[in-house]
Amino acid sequence: MKKLYYLSSCSTCKKILNQWNLPRDFKMQDVKRNPLTLEDLDLMHQRSGSFEALFSRRAKLFHERQLGAEDLDEGRYKSLLLEHYTFLKRPVLIWDDHIFIGSAKATIEEAFKAIHSSD
User: Fold this and answer.
1) Alpha helix locations (H) across the chain?
2) Which of 14, 32, 88, 106 has the lowest CB atom count within 10 Å?
């Protein structure tokens, strides 16, 4: 499976998409317009190993709700990810059995290698 979860209004996601140059028929899901489903989240969880790995602590809502003061467990991470798109660390690229989460430079470079190694 090859799929990208992103936010179309995010300038970082736009920049990364331009770098990656994905095929036109690539499955892409704007998580604001088309929210995550339980199936989407389960697929990401299978590859990442945890919901916490998918969770963005930089989200505005994380700070507004003072979630940093809570002891979050996997169940809470899962429910928050399903509740609002802003909690997803973006972008998330699923490339066959691999998953690339977030916009860290090393992650983006590894994803680029995976995408273009099959050219």
Assistant:
1) 11-20, 38-48, 60-64, 74-83, 105-117
2) 106
Rg (CA), the chain: 14
Nearest to 4 by CA among 110, 89, 86, 95: 95
What region does 21 belong to: left with phi over 0, alpha with psi -120 to 50, or beta? left
Report helix, strand and coil shares of the chain as percent, to nearest 5.
50, 15, 35
Summarised one tens digit per residue, pLDDT across range 55-84 is 999 999 999 999 999 999 999 999 999 999
Q: How much is the pLDDT for 6?
A: 97
Q: Are 88 and 54 spatial neighbours (Cβ–Cβ below 8 Å)?
A: yes
Would you call 118 exposed, middle or buried from its count of C-beta atoms within 10 A (0-12, 13-18, 19+)? Answer: exposed
H or E segment and range at residue 6: strand 2-6
Q: How many CA atoms lie within 13 A of 71 on its CB side?
A: 0
**How many residues in the chain?**
119
| pLDDT at residue 119 greater than cutoff 70 | no
